């Protein structure tokens, strides 16, 4: 499978659908949120820096994120497509991803945008707070993450449109339906 960028608001299901996509098409998976949470858990220098931003619902600075992304990408086995989950989140990151892949003679592949209404997003994140206890899944931090998403990340939708690789999928109340639409599209892309 070619590379896939999965894009959407906090709680839109990026991680969930990524796992299903990885299982069906046998790909690599980079979740920048998971990379950061593992650094925090291991008490690394990077983890210490990241924690302050995550707890406040803010983005980690671009230079740092771009560096982490390139290292993580280069550590994956070559030859399989990779699904980028949680990256890029700013125009600067998107330009850097495009360049990083071009430097390696790879391309961005396709972008999947998950469109979910905010009421559903909030309910999911509050439910996840109960089930997984993620420190940034509390109502105050969730509100900040939504604001950051609208200001810094959502404008990227247009950027991908201009790159000619944006494909939108809208939540209609059922995971099976959403996943069915995503798989039907990806089956035409291999
Ligand atoms: P979900 O995983 O449910 O879609 P989310 O998008 O809010 O929710 P993660 O992708 O796990 O969650 O990211 C958690 C936090 O990690 C972000 O709020 C941000 O602080 C930091 N983070 C993750 N990826 C990036 C990135 N590409 N650039 C800057 N910060 C990031
Ligand atoms: Mg996630």
Walk me through what this model shows.
- Helix 2 crosses helix 3 and helix 4 (62-75) runs parallel beside helix 5.
- The protein has 9 helices and 5 strands; from the N terminus they run E-H-E-H-H-H-E-H-E-H-H-H-E-H.
- It has one domain: P-loop containing nucleotide triphosphate hydrolases (Rossmann fold, 3-Layer(aba) Sandwich), CATH 3.40.50.
- With 190 residues, the protein is an alpha/beta fold.
- The N and C termini lie close together (5 Å).
- The model has no long low-confidence stretch (mean pLDDT 96).
- It has helices spanning 14-25, 32-41, 45-55, 62-75, 91-103, 118-132, 139-153, 156-163, 175-187; strands at residues 4-8, 28-31, 82-85, 110-115, 166-170.
- Magnesium ion binds at residues 14-15, 31, 33, 86.
In order across it, which strands form the biggest sheet?
Answer: 2-3-1-4-5
CATH structural class: Alpha Beta
Oligomeric state of this protein: single chain
Average pLDDT taken over every residue:
96
Radius of gyration: 16 Å
Helix content: 55-70%
- Return residue spans where pLDDT drops below 50 for at least 5 consecutive residues: none
Number of domains: 1
Structural class: alpha/beta
**General form:** globular
Count of helix runs: 9
Q: What fraction of the residues are assigned to beta strands by DSSP?
A: 5-15%
Bound molecules: adenosine-5'-triphosphate, magnesium ion
CATH superfamily: P-loop containing nucleotide triphosphate hydrolases
Please report the distance between the alpha carbons of the first and last residues.
5 Å
Pattern of helices and strands = EHEHHHEHEHHHEH
Biggest sheet statistics: 5 strands, parallel
